[in-house]
Amino acid sequence: MSDHIVEIVVFTALFLLVSVMGFVAARWRAPQDLNHLDEWGLGGRNFGGWITWFLVGGDLYTAYTFVAVPALLFGAGAAGFFAVPYTIIVYPMVFLVLVRLWSVSHRHGFVTPADFVRARFGSPTLALLVAITGIAATMPYIALQLVGIEAVLKTMGVTGDSALARHAPIIVAFAILAAYTYQSGLRAPALIAFVKDTLIYIVILVAVIYLPAKLGGWNSIFDAAEAKFAASPAPNDGITLNVNNQLQYITLALGSAMALFLYPHSITGVLASRDRGVIKRNMSALPAYSLLLGLIALLGFMAIAAGVKPLPGAREGTVDSNTVVPLLFDQQFPAWFAGVAFAAVGIGALVPAAIMSIAAANLFTRNIYKEYLRKDATPAQEANVSKITSLVVKVGAVACIVFLDPQFSIDLQLIGGVIILQTLPAVALGLYTRWLHRGALVAGWVAGMGLGMWMLYQIPNAATGRAHFGGSAFPLSKFGFDTTMTIYVGLVAVALNVLVAVIATLILRSMNVAEGEDGTTREDYFADATTAAPTTPAGSTPAAPTTTT
């Protein structure tokens, strides 16, 4: 650790700076009353274009992205680039969807996607499934942010022999994060996101200019990567895709794009926007982050050319590939600049972790606590429950890292993408049509979730030796096809989900099974801030339907 004093000092100074900003954020943009979910959980619903761009970008492009995408290229080659196309195609896919969701949420005071589902289909049961799915998918995502911080701390030698000593810095960092999130709500990550993204842009632009010049140019970098994969016995690696992984690449990119804005934390940033125009401009401008992501991914090939060797993993005989980017900066840059890069990763973990914990807390408060435990809860009581729940969520994320194998957290996140896709028919399709029966949507969710879990159970992890839940690439040979190709589990599961929902709708309609009341109108989906007045008081649960599923 003594060899990294300068890096540790720079990292600590920048971390303390953003911590102060997190507490000061409680006074930023003059909140009317932080004891209200609209203020604490959505920043007053009045963020403009720049704030939303930094907030949503800081939320979607996380610290784990910063270390894991290049690590994937370092280990598997071209397959790791899947993150670049999916973060490009996602914005035209969701452009109109998110505008409609913002309008109907603004008009009715919805805080979560489950709020919308409850009002749209008149089904507390369906809303509960959407809420539970969102919370379950978000928890491992928060834990993953800690993996990014841990990789940086290990590189700086800030570690220990026991589990508690090894994770003590992370526990302290998350305790500070929990304190200022509790006080300032969504304003804290929104303000810190300016610092986080500025640091990352500076670090990456310097790296992609300086490192190729130092490593002999781009030809040398790609030659080194090609030589490494040519010597590897693995059938699916290489600097280009091959017949074995092309289908997996396409389906993973498409499925990940479909899932991205179903995560509750992604929707939280959208609902905090001031009007429809802010969302439209951001869906056009956010691909700038994808350009940055493409440059970040190439750090994996640069690490190969620089001869980086990953640090040992948590278990004997394994390596921690997430340390390749921190080691690259540690070995190739002056200590002060490496410290800035490490701070960018550390702060990059705090912004999404804060938003994710707020989103999960809002789901619990609006769709479980108020729906089933205390229907007459006041806005102040809702905000208080949400604050406490956000603390519990962060404690759970830290516990995952301290007591579980970090690799298991990474695999859990892959499962999270599969399960959040099962809310697509109710949330995304529901914004355009109410043709699907609420009972059929529940049946589709059960079928998609069941098939997805079965497929994930069949996938081993060759790196860890675990027999089940080792990834999301399902071998088509298990379906009886004579091929070595694999396919993304989430896309297959959601296809079955939609098919079952359509068939079950036809059956339920033929049996004249009652449908829930639609609490929205066509005009709600086109309302803007200047034309729409909420028909339901902001912060309250939509009117209860007359029947339930």
From TrEMBL:
It is found in: Membrane. It comes from the Bacteria. It holds the Pfam family SSF. One of its GO terms (molecular function) is transmembrane transporter activity. The chain crosses the membrane at residues 6-26, 47-67, 73-99, 126-144, 164-182, 194-213, 247-265, 286-308, 335-364, 385-404, 410-432, 439-457, 485-508. GO terms for cellular component: plasma membrane. It is a multi-pass membrane protein. Keywords: Membrane, Transmembrane, Transmembrane helix, Transport. CDD domains: SLC5sbd. InterPro entries: Na/Glc_symporter_sf, Na/solute_symporter, Sodium:Solute_Symporter. The keyword Transmembrane applies. Belongs to the sodium:solute symporter (SSF) (TC 2.A.21) family. PANTHER family: MONOCARBOXYLIC ACID PERMEASE, SODIUM/PROLINE SYMPORTER-RELATED. This is SSS family solute:Na+ symporter. The lineage of its organism: Bacteria, Bacillati, Actinomycetota, Actinomycetes, Micromonosporales.
